């Protein structure tokens, strides 16, 4: 079941993010932008070598992508035109500014999207896999930040939260029902 709020501007779906036809999908990357497991691995695998090549160009020019920052590349073989790679914080009990850094991932990804005239963008549940961020807290931060952005931003037509696992989907579903 899909869920839509704000006149279809914010949407929740359960899907594999690599299958989506949107302007940009966001990747929960690592700071080396080398690809890895989870959603990162899936995106690099489905998008092909062009994504990796552009990640390496970014690294050669700017070095690592730090936690909370974002970098944009082609979507390669994906249906999405762009991939926005953002580096989520690894959960460390909340002692390393993880909450603010996770908010920055969403904010910086949106800023980069707007700069590149992206109108539809899909986010995975950043940091809630291998990086161990508590799922409910991560969803609260993501939703709060996106609602904030959508109040002032007129350039983005649609933001899609893409959940892969039932637990995240149920958390988002409950939360979005609460703000309907
Ligand atoms: P992180 O290191 O930021 O935790 P992970 O890739 O381990 O990144 O997990 C982030 C989230 O991405 C998890 O909630 C996981 O269920 C989800 N995920 C994994 N594969 C996909 C996919 N193909 N499409 C969408 N979400 C995915």
From TrEMBL:
It comes from the Bacteria. InterPro entries: Macro_dom, Macro_dom-like. Signal peptide: none annotated. CDD domains: Macro_OAADPr_deacetylase. SMART domains: A1pp. Pfam families: Macro (PF01661). Residues 1-180 form the Macro domain. PANTHER family: GANGLIOSIDE INDUCED DIFFERENTIATION ASSOCIATED PROTEIN 2-RELATED (PTHR11106), MACRO DOMAIN-CONTAINING PROTEIN (PTHR11106:SF27). This is Putative phosphatase, C-terminal domain of histone macro H2A1 like protein.
